[in-house]
């Protein structure tokens, strides 16, 4: 049984994939026992999740030393810190109903030095499980406790990109972007952000939608991706519109061989420049209509991804053909302009993003 089997349904439009990597341990994808004693002499019970909650008996001092957040929760003025049972001789209890018991069990095992319950550096971990771990390390300021394993576990986020034809959801791109953000993996963060930029659509029902409900989002990155995507689509459509408008206005620069003679019915006649321009305009509009690109849409109305739009534009035919003596085409000019646009996309990372990633990398050791 793979780590992907027996889990929640995938989003609409996706399919299950057999994981080519051996998952390190399927037991980590199942709920821990109803009550686990991580410290036989523990003085604190943490109840995680609900219906029913999973209880972990831990050492409060060990937990407080693991992060400033836990220290403030256990010894400060957090609302949760006031939920301790005050009865003499009873366990103190904290209730964390919103958290997932599975990743919480891993983090608590780490801080209590129960390393036999922790996957090794070489282990391949289910991406969704690693995402849930990163959600809690962010929430409880525990990124640093993953330092001995983070670099190795991040390999689990990379292999799906090598599978052709997978949607963004099948690649778990949104989870991987957050994992990279939390662990400070700048290389993968940029790579996945670029995948989202080039391959995302605006349809909420599409498995290639730019955003994914319920997945944590790095600061402002999706707003930046949305803006750059729109700018890129606008630039691609503008390059196309410039050619069509030039042909409509009979701009002479689009016919590079005007005035040359052509042979028709045994007689040599002059190839009219207007005829060539009209031919290119006609073939261009016909081709665009077949691709559902005419009238040329506004960028905000384009639901296709940048990659899909580029692929469509590469098939556009804009030809003037009056025999072997007179051939014009704007296809190469359009493709050259497209390549220029795609190669000059604005950098995805801002200084704010880079500072955060650098800070997290120092914690995680990535």
TrEMBL record:
This is BTB domain-containing protein. CDD domains: BTB_POZ_ZBTB_KLHL-like (cd18186). InterPro entries: SKP1/BTB/POZ_sf. It comes from Xylaria arbuscula. Gene3D superfamilies: Potassium Channel Kv1.1, Chain A (3.30.710.10).
